[in-house]
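Session log. Operator J.P. requested a structure for one protein chain; no other inputs attached. Running the standard single-chain path with token output.
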Amino acid sequence: MNMSDTQGFSAAEKAAMKERAAELKAPKKRMSKAEKQQAARADLEAKIDSFEGSDKELAQRLHQLITSTAPQLEPKLWYGMPAYALDGKVLCFIQDAKKFEARYLTFGFNDVARLDEGTLWPTSFAITALEETHLKMLTDLVAKAVKN
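Structure written below.
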């Protein structure tokens, strides 16, 4: 793509980059590993609490699902989104609808998850409601992601 054909980054993308820069600058250098993990979890939970409408409830349910299925994952913020890392690399994340003006919350996996199935597989899900069958499917995917 020719750069002259674009307008650059959107306001939402710029905001996400600023959030990421702030996350990296956060004063956690003198904290113990346990204190850093506790602070990261508190930051993530505060971010979920800031979500609006049904996104808040959906994110809380996803957070519960992820932490109970894979307690070894480290909660953190990633570009201003709740995320869960394995060995320091983001495995999955929750993106509220408002972040990029979408009409649904997104739950996604990064390539670290290795959810490969043949030559085509989903890496993110648009969510407007969570039913038991959805919870089971997502639980299985999170379990598979941390196992691979």
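Operator note: The longest helix spans residues 33-50.
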